[in-house]
UniProtKB/TrEMBL annotation, chain A:
Organism: candidate division NPL-UPA2 bacterium Unc8
Recorded superkingdom: Bacteria
GO cellular component annotations of the record: cytosol
PFL domain sequence ranges: 1-295
Glycine radical domain ranges (all copies): 303-421
InterPro entries: Gly_radical, GRE, PFL_dom
Residue numbers of Glycine radical PTMs: 397
Protein name in the entry: Formate acetyltransferase
Annotated GO MF terms: lyase activity
Keywords: Lyase, Organic radical
Length: 421, 330
């Protein structure tokens, strides 16, 4: 079956039969972006920590692409609201840069770049802004929920959920504990990369002033190209570098804590979810230039925890290490996407890939899904090298970035790479 | 009597300013010089590994795909396609070695003294320094990062190069330290080193990856710049001792060691050696752009890599001689 819908989820645990792992790798190697892999080690614990009975948590499954659900239980069927908050928007707003009227209207905080004394202060204000938006969205969602409950019952769904018929209650009325309402945050690592660049260039090395950087961001780097290059050269998430990974962890944990303080109509905490869909692209269009070197309107990093495209240069183990540091249990329901050349999933390499997946499980990372690099991607890298600067070509004793190879050599690699579905 | 010029002025005048920097940096360095650290390395030994590539090699193989691995000092690599013509490098160059030609940087390597200031200021990574000194502690920190991956996959640490035996003290200490942390170790070598050095490091080595480039001394010298007597003697000693796992690596180089007759002869020579695996590694031309970034000529440009069929045919020959542990690797 080569269908993308319905999405396949695979629960990863230590007792998995080898045959199943091999089959999963075989499917991934064929170019399918499935199955997505969910780690029991963190998911079950997370559900229990939200108040779910262990018996039900052990039986979890995945709804749509990311939302944990408990088959037959009224866990995530009561409310219908989810939307995305771009973290970089909140960071930029803290510096007085924002094209959005939405958050100009109250509650939000900005800080004068001239008086900014540390990157921690900026992080605090960024979290304040995230918190303010989360509360506004919760308010809207609570109103929507109340209206749904009154005017939009779900009789068909109610018929297949345990206890609804016995209780003569619609899913929207029957209160299984806990329930799952989420807010999606995007661009966490654009936020972390930006704060790392500010920390390094403005505060540690004092190479640029905060006022000048804000001017550069407001002008979308026009006339400040050297500043942009400096920011691009600062530490980036996904390289197993504590300098920036620790910022991502702090930002993620703080946002999660604040979001959990938002309450649904039933008084249960709102959780952070990684179901970003295509928001990293569409909401990226709303975000002005960011201090990580990104230009205005460009996509944010994909999904909710991946490194920014092209900036993870230490290979796949470094990415897993970085992600594991963001504390998957205490932060949120994260979506990580990784891209591999098909050769890494074939033949003898498939065995090593299985051990890489085992380590993903041991590191307690929440979720991972894969795309294999296909011909189209390589062709794109040939014509837009700046977007694919971390694409590696490796054979024994040799490695180079794809974009640095001769055009002829690039063509020969493109010719050898299978076309993916 | 005219005064003699100072050594440093003399070298500058003769277009060898770089030697001044090299003389300074090489004095009393207890650190290792490496040009690459590769994590998720899966071709240099079993399992998921971290390969540390040390810079400096006594051989100068004409087909080398990592020319930046050869010289035992940091060098400048220039990837011209990345240059935006900003000219920052011009401002910091004290040797006047840099010019801009049609908005692209140009380095006169005979004037360059390798101070690396241009690489430090280059905003686009057009000019990069290759070769980084690292202390044992720093190297071990890097190695420790993927420990969990090694344990799960039966992997470990590979020291490669260049030639790791070219930095014997650092290599020895790093291997020792790895064994102290119970990490599996592999040593990827050309074999061109004195037995005294090799013997000491082998104690802390689980697997030896050993290259055979050619069996004929004269041809070996022609392709690599050195004879092969020392190399073959060392191989025999390692194999005879019988205490280390050994993988032989045979680079298949067109018009050099890829004839049927030669492969037959090679098979006969290694048939009695109790090695675990023999890897045929195809010559490839992907290192070519690196020669350009180092300002060197690529001497091997008219050779096409042997195709899969050719490699398979050579593997079959070795198999027919009773070698059943031959693989075609990448």
């Amino acid at each position: 079956m080569r269908a993308i819908i319905p999405p396949l989820a695979l629960r990863w645990h230590d007792g998995m039969p080898r045959k199943l792992i091999n089959k999963a790798i075989e499917v991934l190697a064929s170019g399918m972006p499935q199955p997505a892999i969910f780690n029991d080690k963190v998911n079950i614990l997370r559900l229990v920590s939200l108040g779910c009975p262990i018996k039900d948590a052990n039986n979890y499954s995945i709804n749509n692409c990311m939302v944990p659900t408990i088959p037959g239980k009224n866990f995530n069927h009561k409310s219908d609201w989810a939307t995305g908050i771009p973290v970089p928007l909140c960071l930029n707003y803290a510096l007085g840069i924002s094209p959005l009227a939405l958050i100009k209207r109250g509650g939000d905080k900005t800080i004068d770049p001239a008086t900014l004394s540390s990157v921690d202060e900026l992080l605090d204000v960024t979290v304040e802004n995230c918190k303010w938006l989360a509360h506004q969205l919760t308010l809207i969602a609570n109103i929507a929920d109340a209206i749904y409950q009154e005017y939009a019952p779900r009789p068909f769904l109610s018929a297949v959920i345990d206890d609804c018929i016995e209780r003569a209650q619609d899913v929207r009325d029957w209160n299984y504990t806990p329930d799952y309402r989420d807010i999606v945050f995007l661009g966490l690592n654009n936020g972390a990369d930006s704060l790392a660049a500010i920390k390094k260039l403005v505060f540690d090395e004092k190479k640029i002033s905060m006022e000048k950087l804000v001017k550069a961001l407001k002008s979308n780097w026009h006339g400040y190209e050297d500043l942009q290059q400096m920011c691009l050269g600062a530490p980036k998430f996904g390289n197993d570098d504590d300098y920036v990974d620790s910022i991502s962890r702090e930002l993620g944990r703080r946002i999660s804590e604040e979001t959990m303080k938002c309450k649904t109509n039933r008084g249960t905490p709102v959780t952070v979810d990684g179901t970003t869909a295509t928001g990293w692209w569409s909401l990226g269009r709303l975000c002005a230039a960011t201090a990580d070197g990104r230009r205005a309107g460009e996509a944010l990093h994909d999904w909710s925890i991946s490194p920014m495209a092209g900036r993870d240069k230490r290979g796949p183990t470094a990415v897993l290490k970085s992600v594991s540091k963001v504390d998957p249990l205490m932060t949120w329901n994260h979506l990580l996407n990784q891209s591999f050349m098909p050769q890494y999933l074939l033949g003898h390499n498939a065995e090593l890939f299985a051990q890489y997946l085992k380590t993903f499980g041991d590191l307690g990372i929440h979720h991972i899904q894969f795309t294999t690099v296909d011909r189209e991607t390589l062709k794109d890298a040939r014509s837009h090298p700046e977007k694919h600067s971390s694409l590696m070509v490796r054979v024994a004793g040799f490695s180079a970035y794809f974009i640095d190879l001769d055009k002829n050599l690039q063509d020969s690699i493109i010719a050898r790479t299978p076309q993916c579905f | 009597m005219p005064e003699l010029p100072s050594v440093s002025d003399f070298l500058k005048e003769k277009g060898m300013a770089r030697l001044n920097t090299i003389r300074e940096t090489n004095q009393g360095v207890a650190e290792g010089l490496m040009f690459n650290i590769q994590r998720y390395s899966i071709q240099d030994g079993p399992g998921i590994r971290t390969t540390i590539s040390l810079k400096g090699c006594p051989l100068k193989c004409k087909w080398c795909s990592n020319p930046e691995s050869q010289n035992p000092y940091p060098e400048i690599m220039v990837r011209k396609a990345r240059c935006n013509g900003c000219g920052k490098c011009l401002d910091v160059c004290a040797c006047g070695a840099i010019t801009l030609n049609e908005d692209t940087v140009q380095i006169d390597r005979s004037r360059c003294d390798l101070c690396m200031k241009c690489a430090d200021v280059c905003p686009t990574e057009t000019i990069e320094s290759t070769g980084k000194y690292m202390s044992l502690k720093e190297a071990m920190e890097e190695v420790g990062k993927d420990e969990l991956f090694y344990r799960n996959s039966g992997g470990g640490v590979t020291l490669s190069g260049g030639e790791p035996l070219y930095q014997p003290e650092f290599t020895l200490n790093l291997l020792k330290e790895c064994k102290e942390r119970a990490l599996s170790t592999a040593l990827d070598i050309s074999g061109y080193a004195s037995w005294r050095v090799l013997d000491r490091v082998l104690k802390y080595t689980d697997l030896v990856l050993f290259d055979i480039k050619h069996l004929e001394p004269a041809i070996h010298r022609k392709g690599t710049g050195r004879g092969n007597q020392l190399i073959l003697e060392n191989l025999k000693k390692i194999v005879d001792a019988g205490q280390r796992r050994v993988w032989l690596r045979i680079p298949i180089i067109p018009n050099y060691n890829d004839s049927e007759q030669y492969i037959e002869k090679l098979a006969e020579a290694v048939t009695k050696m109790p090695v675990e695996k023999i890897s045929l590694l195809s010559y490839h031309e992907w290192g070519k752009p690196k020669y350009e970034s180092l300002g060197r000529d690529y001497l091997f440009s008219d050779s096409a890599p042997p195709g899969q069929e050719r490699l398979q045919a050579l593997k079959d020959i070795m198999q027919s001689k009773g070698l059943h542990n031959v693989t075609i690797d990448y």
